Amino acid sequence: MSPKVSQAHKEKRRNQIIAAAKTVFIRKGFEKTTMHDVVEESGMSRGGVYQYFSSTEEMMRALMDQGEEAFTGQKDRLYEKYETSWGVLEAVVEAHNIVPMDPIGLVVYEYFVAGFREATKERTHYLKKRLHNIKGFYIDVIERGTAEAEFKPIQTPDVIASYLIILTDGLILHRNLGEEVETDISGLIEGLKIYLRNALGMQ
User: Fold this and answer.
1) Distance of CA 75 to CAs 54, 61, 78, 80, Å?
2) How many CA atoms, within 13 angstroms, populate the side-chain half-sphere of residue 146?
């Protein structure tokens, strides 16, 4: 009878595979990464890896889901720290200037751009789901600020949230393109905050 494996051990092994996949994705790009590459990077057996993931597609989505959960799960913690809805939004925007660059951002762009050519549009549907969840985070913050008379929006929460996502995605892209691309990230972030203050009716 084989020994039972604890849930904590399974989670550790799963995270080990995801970390290995991230390393290879950054080194080779998503499209060129194979299951064999990840198996070698993880140091696990082929069967051990396939026990958790059957494709690099599943690994990529697990990696992105981790990032999304970390982002959308921080709202209560941000309110505890900043108290106001504007404080929460400003902290999220400013994070794009101070959080260390993560090259996985370019891999995510590669993943979705290549996905638009798929006949099934499966990745497109997945992207829409992720955008819906992230947009929901921003809309909740905006609606809370509006209910507490902190904001008097001149645009709908949906439009403001969508615009915020588009601009922060652009910031991530520029930060990941490297030093050879001369971009005033701090200036762009300040411009985004100017838009938000106006759109939220704070001025």
Assistant:
1) 33, 22, 5, 9
2) 16
**Gap between the Cα atoms of 107 and 113, Å rounded:** 10
CA distances from 63 to 19, 55, 67 (A): 8, 13, 7
Q: What is the pTM of this model?
A: 0.80
Cα 25 to Cα 35: distance, rounded to the nearest angstrom: 11
CA atoms of 123 and 111, how far apart (whole Å): 8
The closest alpha carbon to 21, from 59, 58, 52, 68, belongs to: 59
- Residue 18 pLDDT greater than 90, yes or no: yes
Say if residues 85 and 150 touch (Cβ distance below 8 Å).
yes
> If you search the block for the tokens 């990230």, which residue do you land on?
185
Show the beta-strand stretches assigned E in 123-172.
none
Strand ranges in the chain using DSSP code E only, listed in sequence order: none
Q: Which two tokens stand for residue 157?
A: 């929460």
CA distance 161 to 158: 5
pLDDT of 111-122, one tens digit each?
887 776 665 577
pLDDT at 1 over 50: no
